[in-house]
Specification:
CATH superfamily of the largest domain: Nucleotide cyclase, GGDEF domain
CATH class of the largest domain: Alpha Beta
Helix content: 40-55%
Distance between the termini: 73 Å
Order of helices and strands: EHEHEHEHEHHEHHEEHEEHEHEE
Largest sheet: 8 strands, mixed
Radius of gyration: 35 Å
Oligomer: single chain
CATH topology of the largest domain: Alpha-Beta Plaits
């Protein structure tokens, strides 16, 4: 360990240096407080021994400057003094000194106080390292939490473990499924199937983030996303439509090595949903309601390479987008509903 000695008396300098160097400490000597302060700013020291009375800058001022200096790691300061009045020692401690030794030096006492300082420095370093490790682990946990939940929901879960359930009157839900995926990958190994889906869904994740949508989950080869939850937005339908177009453009760029291009069926519905987190294990942010189930059926019974939407979504988008009417078909729980194919922007 390197020790900075601030001492104007040459004999005291030599005595301190001799005692400490025999114990394998590296010593740097400054002839007065000003020189010690300049040296301290240039170099790295964790322990400083300073005389109280020195020319140009006294020991108390040096202590105060060291304490005011923003520097990583704790600096342990031992003040050398011939003063033994309690009021003087209180002044020294208030100025920033950790300990003191009196003149004339007692070798055993000096070394004991230096070793005590070294223990404090080592302890502080250990605490600092452990704190840094905890911060790294906390950052990892935070990233993991945000990969599972929207930030707003993650923040709420950290404050309150009770179930989260929110109602949204206006939202748009998208389901995108890879057409005939099971047949396409029938000859692939499990690792190859997972790798392919990972590439496709990672690309969809980037697009969802780009358009400000919330990825909800994946179900096999189906990707689910939503706009308007957990943060409401008036353009929820437009945002979902833009994501759908981007997904259709992205999927044709994949070379899956299947002998046939990948194609999507996309289904969209707009309306009220309930969103939240329930249960105590394997928590996930999910959506419920008629709008969700209808969007899923829009995908399931959609046309390959097309974006099928309900009349609710059509009503939100008809001013700025081009549609083809597909007609009515039966949706379980709702009966016959009118559907449209979203084909472009006006």
């Amino acid at each position: 360990m390197r020790i900075l000695i601030a001492e104007d008396d040459k004999d005291s300098q030599k005595l301190l240096a001799r005692i400490l160097e025999k114990e394998n400490y590296e010593i740097v000597v400054a002839d007065d407080g000003r020189m010690a302060w300049e040296t301290f700013q240039r170099e790295d020291f964790r322990l400083v021994i300073t005389d109280w009375i020195m020319p140009r800058m006294k020991g108390l001022e040096l202590c105060e400057k060291i304490r005011a200096k923003e520097k990583p790691g704790y600096v342990y300061i031992i003040l050398v003094t011939s003063k033994e009045e309690k009021a003087d020692l209180v002044r020294a401690l208030d100025a920033g000194a950790d300990d003191y030794v009196t003149k004339p030096y007692d070798r055993g006492e000096l070394l004991a106080r230096v070793r005590a300082g070294q223990r404090i420095i080592n302890l502080e370093q250990t605490i600092s390292e452990k704190t840094q490790e905890l911060l790294v682990e906390k950052e990892k946990s935070e990233r993991l939490l945000l990969s599972i939940f929207p930030k707003f929901i993650a923040d709420r879960l950290k404050l309150d473990s009770s179930p989260i359930a929110d109602s949204f009157t206006e939202a748009s839900i998208l389901f995108a499924g890879i057409n005939d995926f099971s047949s396409l990958v029938a000859q692939k190994t499990p690792v190859e199937v997972v790798d392919l889906l990972g590439q496709v869904f990672s690309a969809f994740d980037r697009l969802a983030q780009q358009f400000g949508l919330e990825k909800i989950k994946t179900l096999g080869d189906i990707y689910m996303a939503a706009a308007g939850v957990p943060a409401q937005r008036p353009d929820h339908a437009e945002a979902v439509a833009e994501l759908a177009f981007a997904m259709q453009e992205e999927i044709v760029r994949f070379d899956a090595g299947l002998g046939a291009p990948l194609q999507l069926r996309v289904g969209i519905d707009s309306g009220p949903v309930v969103a939240g987190v329930i249960g105590t294990a394997k928590l996930a942010y999910d959506l419920w309601g008629d709008t969700v189930s209808t969007a899923a059926q829009m995908e399931a019974y959609g046309l390959t390479g097309s974006i099928q939407v309900t009349s609710e979504t059509y009503g939100c988008l008809q001013e700025n987008f081009v549609f083809e009417e597909r007609g009515e078909f039966y949706v379980q729980g709702k009966g016959n509903i009118r559907t449209y194919l979203l084909v472009g922007r006006k």
